[in-house]
Design brief:
- The complex is a heterodimer of chains A (265) and B (334).
- Chain A is an all-alpha fold and 265 residues long.
- Chain A has one domain.
- Chain A is 75% helix and 0% strand.
- Chain A has twelve helices and no strands.
- The longest helix of chain A has 32 residues.
- The two termini of chain A are 36 Å apart.
- Chain B has a six-stranded mixed β-sheet with strand order 5-6-7-3-8-9. In chain B, strands 11-12-10-13 form a four-stranded antiparallel β-sheet. In chain B, strands 2-1-4 form a three-stranded antiparallel β-sheet.
- With 334 residues, chain B is of the alpha/beta class.
- Chain B is built from ten helices and 13 strands.
- Among the domains of chain B are: 165 residues, Rossmann fold, CATH 3.40.50.300; 62 residues, 2-Layer Sandwich (Alpha-Beta Plaits).
- In chain B, helix 5 packs parallel to helix 6.
- The chains are: A mainly alpha (265), B alpha/beta (334).
- Chains A and B meet through helix 1 and helix 5 of A and helix 1, strand 5 and helix 3 of B.
């Protein structure tokens, strides 16, 4: 109970601290507005040319709201990997060990706190733009609840992936290349630009099985098209991925800590 | 256990060897680097100790072993009765640390928010936390900027808040790594006084590493110099200057131009018409004899005898000057 209180407070402190970055958030929202407008025009052409009212099971307004969510999820990601990379290289990680805290858990909660603020602000702006461009779509309280169940797992999964990349600083000269690959794979295979239903039929099962879709596509799909069966399937996949990646984080973290002498004097 | 132990830190033949590997396959080379080489020392509870040495001497490695971050290759260590690398989680509740170049304060939040967070991290009882916090605010003069975001504080204010934050959970041992780095003269002096005051009044053991001779002189009573992983000197700070170089700085002002002073071991550092600054090697000529000669040289208006600057003493030790015998085991000077 005490431990939960401690880590929750870390999350709250990180959230409060992140409110200081309002100018950065404002800059991101301008980018978000531009991106959403471009995608709206592209999808308008696509829907118009094909003459379809639905693509991948989504209408044009649903498609734009889907993009609002995928862009909001992507743009709300804190810079976890570069920060951990710096902690390793500067020796700040060693300093963290002199506190009654688990470094990975403290990082997880501060990331969740930070992301919550960024996500909330981006979503408000994104939703306002979508309302302006295509109007509302049908939402239900139950559907939003299902979406909110999938969201923390998606954030945790993304954190675990980025944490592993950051820990790579124990062995690699530079982890920015790995982060670039990770972020691009998450964008493309995770369904940020196009829902998985529009990928070739043969690759869809593979894409659904990969953790990237559980970070972006899964929650975004739940947002525009809530479905209890889909949520059950998503939560199982997210849970499995969290177990596997947490195991990997534990192994890599333990191996990294043994090398801490070489970093930061 | 932590509060009642009369010994704060005890090391016995503590050693750490790192294995460096380079190359691949058949060209793979392994090389052992000895970072800490059989250090033994005892620090009584409440003592303030300067642990100094040149870069690469083994200071950080020793501190990392004392805080449980690193396992030693050989030897034993106890901090407040805990074996750091086996009982790190228990130990960290009783130790505090300030790293001059790494902040524990949240940059965009006021110090008060970091204090609140630390109270949760250390699971402090609300009542005792509030009392402790208020005492620290008063003693460290934090009231005027307690609600100001850290990014808007001066470096001196920030460091005062850093040290106060590290004392919030009432640690029994405080590790200070370059706490005054970058501070101006006044802020540096204020911080040293606060640390010293806390050491004396609360009995917290201070383990200081610094390259600033002023920090060592003002805060520490005992100095341990390490080089190449070994203790090369362990003595009182005052004895370090007095015994190691055996020299004094004599500044004299005269009412009239003095006669020249020529004695073995006496060097004129600075001379003007009415003043002299002499360096005296007391092993060549006792200070009393020099004083007598000064009085004979002219009518004295003012005279001051000072120890040589500590920087010179330490630089001499680092340079590998004739090291005195290590007073290993002699820890009566508290």
């Amino acid at each position: 109970m005490m431990a939960l209180r401690k880590y929750t407070w870390i999350g709250l402190t990180a959230a409060r601290s992140n409110l200081a970055y309002l100018s950065e958030v404002a800059a991101r929202t301008v980018f978000l507005a531009v991106i959403l407008y471009i995608f709206l025009r592209l999808w308008q052409v696509t829907y118009g040319d094909t003459g379809a009212t639905q693509l991948g099971g989504l209408t044009l307004p649903q498609m734009l709201w889907y993009l609002v969510m995928t862009e909001t999820l992507t743009l709300s990601a804190p810079r976890v990997a570069p920060e951990i990379d710096q902690d390793v290289r500067t020796g700040a990680l060693a300093v963290q060990l002199i506190r009654p805290l688990s470094y990975p858990l403290a990082r997880l909660w501060s990331t969740l706190g930070e992301r919550l603020v960024r996500f909330g602000l981006n979503l408000v702006v994104g939703a306002a733009i979508a309302l302006l461009l295509v109007g509302p779509i049908a939402f239900s309280a139950g559907g939003l609840l299902l979406f909110l169940l999938a969201l923390p797992c998606a954030f945790t999964l993304d954190f675990l992936g980025q944490f592993l990349i950051g820990m790579g600083a124990f062995w690699l000269e530079d982890t920015s290349g790995l982060l670039l690959i990770y972020s691009r794979i998450t964008m493309i295979l995770g369904g940020m630009l196009i829902p998985l239903e529009l990928f070739p039929q043969a690759v869809q099962p593979w894409l659904r099985a990969l953790p990237f879709s559980s970070i972006i596509y899964g929650p975004a799909r739940m947002f525009v098209h809530p479905d209890a069966a889909f949520l059950r399937d998503l939560i199982v996949r997210q849970g499995l991925a969290i177990v596997v990646l947490s195991g990997a984080v534990a192994l890599v973290y333990r191996a990294g800590i043994r090398r801490i002498h070489a970093n930061g004097g | 256990m932590a509060n009642s132990n009369p010994i704060a830190v005890q090391l016995e033949n503590l050693s750490k060897t790192f294995e460096l590997r380079s190359g691949w396959g058949r060209n793979r080379i392994r090389r052992a680097v000895i970072a800490v080489d059989g250090i033994s020392l005892t620090i009584p509870a409440g003592q303030s100790v300067a642990f100094i040495g040149p870069n690469g001497a083994g200071k950080s490695t020793t501190i990392k072993m004392l805080t449980g971050i690193l396992h030693p290759s050989a030897g034993q260590a106890q901090v407040l009765g805990y074996t750091p690398w086996r009982e790190r989680r228990e130990l960290v509740r009783y130790i505090g640390a300030v790293f001059g170049q790494r902040s524990q304060l949240w940059y965009h939040l006021p110090p008060r928010d970091t204090f609140e967070l630390l109270a949760r991290i250390y699971s402090l009882d609300r009542g005792s936390y509030v009392r402790r916090r208020d005492t620290l605010i008063e003693r460290f003069g934090l009231g005027e900027f307690l609600h100001t975001p850290v990014r808007k504080l001066s470096l001196g204010q920030r460091m005062r808040a850093e040290v106060a934050a590290s004392l919030l959970h009432a640690p029994r041992v405080l590790f200070l790594d370059e706490p005054t780095i970058g501070l101006d003269v006044i802020a540096r002096q204020e911080l040293r006084d606060l640390i010293l005051e806390w050491n004396r009044e609360e009995g917290v053991t201070v383990f200081l590493t610094s390259h600033d001779a002023g920090d060592i002189e003002r805060v520490a009573r005992r100095v341990i110099v390490i080089n190449h992983g070994r203790v090369v000197l362990d003595d009182k700070v005052s004895a370090l200057r007095r015994q190691y170089l055996g020299s004094k700085i004599l500044s004299v002002k005269f009412h009239a131009p003095p006669a020249p002073i020529v004695l073995p071991g006496v060097t004129t550092l600075k001379a003007s018409e009415y003043a002299l600054k002499l360096e005296v090697d007391t092993r060549a000529t006792p200070i009393e004899q020099v004083m007598a000669e000064v009085l004979r040289a002219g009518a004295v208006a003012d005279i001051a005898i000072e120890d040589p600057p500590l920087e010179e003493v330490i630089a001499h030790i680092y340079a590998g000057g004739s090291a005195p015998e290590v007073a290993a085991g002699d820890h009566k000077h508290a």
